[in-house]
Design brief:
The protein has 163 residues and is mainly α. The chain has two domains: 98 residues, RNA polymerase sigma factor, region 2, helix turn helix motif (Rna Polymerase Sigma Factor, Chain: A, Orthogonal Bundle), CATH 1.10.1740; 63 residues, Arc Repressor Mutant, subunit A (Orthogonal Bundle). It is built from eight helices and no strands. Helix 2 runs antiparallel to helix 6, helix 3 crosses helix 4 and helix 4 packs across helix 7. The chain is globular, with a radius of gyration of 16 Å. 23% of the residues are buried. Keywords: Sigma factor, Transcription, Transcription regulation. Pfam families: Sigma70_r2 (PF04542), Sigma70_r4_2 (PF08281). This is RNA polymerase sigma factor. Belongs to the sigma-70 factor family. ECF subfamily.
Length: 163
């Protein structure tokens, strides 16, 4: 695959899954600037590892894995340092605006923001109707453990929303 073909394939795949990335950014970024920085960092990490996508899982599953790992890595570092990437190497993606949200969704995100990193990821995947098998691949946690964690997370969210 030529460099241009790879860039075109990357741009096409990202365009079809941009909302997925924004969901991760909304959960892990506290401010709009944090979200945009995280979006850019996820884009860089996705581009860096794009040639490693083998198609064994759905692209969206792989993209969730890259996005969540990038977000969790940023939390661990407690600094968001965006690597410098040459413009001619990474495809140009200019629309970095996050999608609008309604009030009910904002309340849900506010409650989810109080969860820890793995709980946030699990909640996001659950809300996306991902199967526990797929969650297992993305998060690297056994299916039975995920089911127990999800039960606990649901209870936590019920308590947070009823406060």
């Amino acid at each position: 695959m030529t460099s241009q073909q790879q860039q075109d394939a990357f741009t096409e795949r990202i365009a079809g899954n941009e909302a997925l990335i924004w969901k991760v950014c909304r959960l892990y970024g506290e401010t709009e600037q944090d979200r945009q920085d995280l979006f850019q960092e996820i884009m860089v990490q996705t581009w860096k590892s794009f040639d490693q996508f083998r198609g064994e899982a759905k692209f969206s599953t792989w993209l969730y894995q890259v996005s969540i790992n990038t977000a969790l890595s940023g939390i661990r570092k407690k600094k968001r340092m965006i690597p410098v990437v040459q413009r001619d190497v990474m495809p140009e993606i200019t629309d970095f605006s996050s999608p609008p949200e309604d009030e009910q969704l904002q309340q849900l995100y506010h409650a989810i923001a109080k969860l820890n990193g793995v709980e946030k990821a699990l909640t996001l995947l659950y809300l996306e109707d991902r199967s526990y098998k797929e969650m297992e691949v993305i998060l690297g946690v056994s299916e039975s453990t995920l089911r127990v964690k999800m039960t606990r997370v649901k209870e936590k969210l019920r308590q947070l929303i009823n406060i």
